[in-house]
Amino acid sequence: MKAKILAAVAIATFASFAFAEDFTVKAVKGSVKAGSDVVKAGQTLQSDTKLTAGLNSSLTVVGENGQTIVIKGKSTGTVANLVAKASGGLRKGSLNTTTIAGNTKGGSSGVATASSRASEAKEDTEWAE
Fold first, then answer.
1. pLDDT at residue 28, rounded to an integer
2. What is the rounded radius of gyration, in angstroms, for the C-alpha atoms of the chain?
3. 46-64: per-residue pLDDT in tens?
């Protein structure tokens, strides 16, 4: 049993390294920074590197699979997220809490759940015993 768990952990660890991709910068136009360093053509960027592209800037990167992707200006995020956004692929998202009904101005006070609907239905019915 311990061997199976250890094998599963080892496979998961190696799989996470397999999906980490490096990108080579093909061309830079305008101001693009990786952290506080200026990005230059020929530089290799890891997928978790945070990029900031200024207004009217662009960054052309080539992935390990040979795919060329152009990241447009006025964008900030990790290389993986910006590449996914530029190529139309899936990216890790987050919950936008400003659209939840309780937080919006003039929104409803709450969302009806199955239990609240069931309690309302129980009050509306008459049971013959």
1. 93
2. 24
3. 888 899 998 889 999 998 8
The residue type of 57 is S
**Interval 67-82: pLDDT, tens:** 888 988 888 899 888 8
Distance CA 15, CA 10 (A): 8
Query: Looking at the predicted structure, is the pLDDT value of residue 27 above 90?
Result: yes
Are the C-beta atoms of 54 and 32 separated by less than 8 Å?
yes
Which secondary-structure segment (H or E) carries 4? helix 2-19
Q: How far apart are CA 123 and CA 100, in angstroms?
A: 28
pTM for the full model?
0.52
Sorted by sequence, the CB contacts under 8 Å of residue 66 that are 6+ apart come out as none
Query: How far does Cα 126 stand from its chain's mean position?
Result: 51
CA-to-CA distance for 104 and 71, rounded, in angstroms?
33
Token pair of 9 as six digits: 């952990």
Decide: 62 and 23 in contact? Cβ < 8 Å: yes
